[in-house]
Amino acid sequence: MNGTIGSESRLLAEERRREIIQRIEQQGRVTVATLAKRFGVSAVTIRSDLDVLSGRRLLVRSHGGAILPLEVRDEFPISVKRSIHHAEKVRIGRAAADLVRPHQTVILDSGTTTPEVAASLRKRGVEAVTVITHALNVALELAESPNLSLIMIGGVLRRVSRSFVGPQAERMMRELHADHFFLAVDGLDPEAGLSTPDILEAQLNALMMTRAREVTVVADASKIGRRSVSVIADVRAVHRIVTDDRIAAESLHALRANGVEVIVA
């Protein structure tokens, strides 16, 4: 009898998950509250369903719900990306900021993890740090920080990432030097390397790597093992990667085998 009940329960769960996928394909995103009301189950049950479907790479968890998974040539806008794996990004930001010492110069890339590095730098109040960035959201995070100097790189605005790229940005970057470059990526594959959807962003990132003494990739574990369109550099070109504790053991081993330090936040 118990076996029958268990089978029926699993069947109901799979039916509910199929409908969740149908809804997210139609609407682009779903919320826990809406799904709990639709199926007459608890928010805990819906979160469990979303976690299972996320594990199958059928959706991407975001704050309060889920969205469609990123296709290789697509790029979510900043307003959407900042809610995805947010808790992990905050931990990564803190761990990365701990690497910065007083009187150092730091380059912060665009994205939604680097603003968390910026936020941690601001809260820590590290003395006389200079930050170079081409990202509007990073600049806004630091604009009111009296203990930090801010250098804004200009160029052509990419609205989806709210960052400046192109020849003007590269020309300005060539005239600057830094102690650290915190690089955010959309894909980090031990074999294919570091990648991002935009060619101009990749070119600027590659240049930034040459202007810093140390390069640290800040990327939550969902980025590891993925490949995007434009290759930035080989994994072995970076000094370390700061990620979260969801990183797969085989990925951790592969990165360390390539001589890359991995900090798990």
Number of strands: 15
Structural class: alpha/beta
Ranges where pLDDT stays below 50 over 5 or more residues in a row are 1-6
Assigned CATH class of the largest domain: Alpha Beta
Keywords:
Arc Repressor Mutant, subunit A, globular, alpha/beta, disordered N terminus, three-stranded antiparallel sheet, 265 residues, Rossmann fold, seven-stranded parallel sheet
Indicate the topology.
Elements: H1 2-27, E1 29-31, H2 32-39, H3 43-55, E2 60-62, E3 65-67, H4 78-81, H5 86-97, E4 105-108, H6 114-124, E5 129-133, H7 136-142, E6 148-152, E7 156-158, E8 163-165, H8 167-173, E9 178-183, E10 187-189, E11 193-196, H9 199-210, E12 212-218, E13 230-233, E14 240-243, H10 249-257, E15 261-264
Parallel strand pairs: 4-5, 4-9, 5-6, 9-12, 12-14, 14-15
Antiparallel strand pairs: 1-3, 2-3, 7-8, 10-11, 11-13
Helix pairs in contact: 2-3, 5-6, 6-7
